[in-house]
Known about the structure:
This protein has 117 residues and is of the alpha/beta class. The chain is built from 4 helices and 5 strands. β3 (42-48), α2 and β4 (73-79) form a beta-alpha-beta unit. InterPro entries: SpoIIAA-like (IPR021866), SpoIIAA-like_sf (IPR038396), STAS_dom_sf (IPR036513).
Amino acid sequence: MLSTFDLAGHVVGLIVDRDLTDDIVDEIIAEVKSKLEIHDKINVFIELEKGRHITFKALWKGIIFKYSNSDHFDKIAIVTDSSWFQNAVNLSDSLLDVDVRTFDLKDRLEAIQWISL
Length: 117
């Protein structure tokens, strides 16, 4: 299930409690697009709960969406204990003009503070 919450008007908060598949990425994209109807630029917080995995297809779909919409993102926080996912995010987002940071699950509060500013 994909849970959403509001941190601030310009922030989309998402918690994924199952494996991150391309179907879940479609749900995330829909949430982001609905927030973009209200705000020109947003921050995105995505937390992948402990033990959850991401498929390559989902990762690729997310990367394509971020690159094609990068001018609408200010900050993106990815919270997960998956080191390969953190590394993939850091590598793929190094070319974006968006402030993207990855956080371990234990640093969730730090991520929430950072993304809310």
